[in-house]
TrEMBL record:
Entry's family note: Belongs to the pirin family.
Pfam entry (one): Pirin
Gene3D superfamilies xrefs: Jelly Rolls
Region (Disordered): 298-321
Signal peptide coordinates: none
Chain ranges of the Pirin C-terminal domain: 193-290
Name listed for the protein in its UniProt record: Pirin family protein
Entry-linked InterPro entries: Pirin, Pirin_C_dom, Pirin_N_dom, RmlC-like_jellyroll, RmlC_Cupin_sf
Superkingdom assignment: Bacteria
Domain (Pirin N-terminal) ranges: 41-141
Length: 321
């Protein structure tokens, strides 16, 4: 999915001033964002209280939605730069097409990882026909300055490594967890994992003390470090942990997001990550002019126009909180 917000705001994110060095338990409420006519998502990042977790800079949780009699996800071609997109499903299917000619149907717990480098465009749709329910998360990873102009590429990893403990199956999406390493390409020290807990599970998840972490709850009743986290909410955990207590009252689905705190400041607007206002304005102008971002072949319909840039230019940021 993408940022379809017509009043896209500029955000400055990153920088170590945001990072909490010690373990904390900071509950982040979602912002409800309407995408198109029928889909509402819960946006966890960027959040008023927190902009990034490691290099993770954008997190939307959507569904489960009954789309039996609806078109489901319909995101027209739109551009990206300076980031990687991670599509993660618990239910349903998504058909991905991009300007490199990729064409992939993504199923639950498969990794669709698109590295934009300096330019790519893609569309995402529920296929026809499609399963009744759609439930997943759309996430972005900011690319560091050293690699933000790499060649665009798309990876579809249908099989991912798993780590298990009694009551827990962890699927490693990016990076490593408990000795299991994802084949997905990464550019900063980062981890993403899907955590499937069975009712009654009471486990300690091994963590890296140098990483900051958050847990996104997607389904079920779960306590994360003794804090109840409802589906559609995120608990920020700070740094300095070697393990994380997880307790499930029912079968539950979570995502673990973490990484080395992202030291660079980035500018995010609409579907672009850059380093300055000027760069963002140039990206908008290139997309609207049909330059640089390529063409998504096979998509029936118009591309997504960029919203207007905010009238007030972005100022260098102070702390967000
Ligand atoms: Mn997108």
């Amino acid at each position: 999915m993408s940022n379809l917000d017509r009043q896209a705001t500029l955000s400055v994110c990153g920088g170590r001033g945001f990072v909490v060095a010690e373990p904390v338990r900071e509950l982040l409420a979602p912002r409800h964002v309407q995408l198109g006519e029928s889909t509402e998502v819960r946006r966890l990042l960027p959040n008023l209280g927190r902009r990034m977790v490691g290099a993770w800079c954008f997190v939307d949780h959507y569904g489960p939605d009954d789309i039996a009699s609806e078109p489901g996800m319909q995101v027209p071609p739109h551009p990206h730069q300076g980031l990687q997109t991670v599509s993660w499903l618990h239910e349903g299917e998504v058909l991905h097409r991009d300007s490199l000619g990729s064409h992939a149907t993504v199923h639950p717990r498969e990794l669709a990882l698109m590295t934009s480098g300096s330019a790519i465009s893609h569309s995402e749709q529920s296929p026809v026909p499609h399963p009744r329910y759609l439930h997943g998360a759309q996430l972005w990873v900011a690319l560091p300055d050293s690699h933000r102009h790499v060649d665009a590429h798309f990876e579809h990893h249908a099989t991912l490594p798993r780590a298990t403990a009694p009551g827990l199956t962890a699927t490693v999406i990016l990076g490593s967890l408990d000795g299991a390493t994802s084949p997905g390409t990464t550019y900063t020290p980062i981890v993403g994992a899907d955590l499937a807990l069975t009712a009654g599970a009471d486990v300690q998840l091994p963590l890296e003390p140098d990483f900051e972490y958050a847990i996104l709850a997607m389904s079920g009743e779960v306590h994360v470090d003794e804090v109840p986290v409802l589906p559609g909410s995120m608990l920020y955990l700070g740094c300095g942990r070697t393990e994380l207590p997880l307790r499930a009252e029912s079968d539950a689905g979570l995502m673990l997001l973490g990484g080395e705190p992202f030291a660079e400041e980035i500018v995010m607007w609409w579907n672009f990550v850059g380093r300055s206002n000027e760069e963002i304005a140039q990206a908008r102008s290139d997309w609207m002019g049909g330059d640089r971002f390529g063409e998504v072949k096979g998509y029936e319909g118009d591309s997504l126009p960029a919203p207007e840039l905010p009238a007030v230019p972005l100022k260098p940021r102070g702390r967000v909180r």
